[in-house]
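Justification of resources, computational component.

The compute hours requested in this renewal are based largely on the per-chain cost of generating structure records like the one below. Each record pairs the submitted sequence with a full structure-token output. That output is archived, and it is also reused by downstream analysis tasks.
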Amino acid sequence: MDNTINTYSVRLREVDISLLKKGIWIYFYLLIFEGALRKWILPSLAEPLLIIRDPLAIWLLFIALRDGIWKPNSMVILTLGVSILAFIFALLFGHGNLFVALFGLRITIIQFPLLFLIGRVFNNGDVIKLGKIILWINIFMTLLVAVQFYSPQSAWVNKSIGLATEGSGFQGAAGFFRVPGTFSFTNGLSLFYGFSAAFIFYFWTNVKKAGKSKTVLIISTVALFAAIPLSVSRTVMFEVVLSILFLIIVSLKRPKILSKIVFGVIGSIFVFIFLSLFSFFQTAVMAFTERFTSASETEGGLEGTLIDRFLGGMYGAIVQSDNIFYGVGLGMGTNAGAKIATGNTGFLISEGEWGRLIGEMGLLIGMVVIIIRVSLVLKLFKLSWREVSYGNLLPWLLFSFTMLNILQGQWAQPTALGFSILSSGLVLASQNKSSTVS
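The structure output for this chain reads:
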């Protein structure tokens, strides 16, 4: 009798794990194509589709908690505690708008715990499978970006979200716009290419893992480099360079891959030379160069572009903090929260993530959340660097993308939040040689 019950329990657990994995796959596809739904397929539902991954995340967490597949760790528990406190403060001492506060609360009580669930349920094989799919998506994404880049803003392919009549392109250069691909806004496209770069460079360090996708890997690599000027995005270039730097760093610990890096650099040069033979690429390079130059001058050169832009302006956030204890209220720093409260979208507090956290929650609670995120980065760094010793470079290269997105990624924006949560979970999952759930 006991053996029958145990066998039934094991089978039920396996069914739940399979269900959770399918849910994570749906989360991934919704992240990539949510913008397409909002722009082209269901424009009348653009606003509710903005948080389409939240109900899915709630369902996944419910299943995992109900069946004991995953339990909140101390980091999650602390985050939930300070988030609820910030929620109460927002209603009592801040803006007082329940819906704005709930929109801000969902970031830390729904999405943040999900990254640990992904790391619990997925394993290395699942992550590699996802990476192979990214290779394919990357190719078609760049083709779409090329069409968007050369099409007028009035074209259907450049349609903005919802029922808006203006184009989806954002400020670019030389008469060309920064395009969003399948995403709602250009930041989603930049994050996608950074995410893709981590996988592409990993597969080049271990081509056997690419399996039958070697030809796809080559084409996807060309597509990645072509996307740098076509996206007119400095962020894309920065993320590609960052992944290369992480490869160089890891070669100090595993010299065997140094030859692969040299081969990759030489191959990249030839790719650029090949692409430069085509006028479409030359035009894109011209627009990208102009964008890079003008934006760097506006933001104060390298210091303004890298230090302030990518380190989040923590010093300024602390110095400019007016309310040590309460802040203006959870959710007020998000575009959606601003629209609910004022009817207009915009950065009511700060465009920088640390400034938003401190502005919404106050200096004390905001700093606690920042410290939690820094602690998560340190944890992922330690784990991924340890895996390098075992010959597993996948966590390390995924960390090259994840690191800055946890530190100062704009979690107020759902797409940026989604990439941070998914990639962080995959860093954890890629260390699992097989499913950790027993």
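Strands lie at 170-173, 176-178. The chain has a mean pLDDT of 84.
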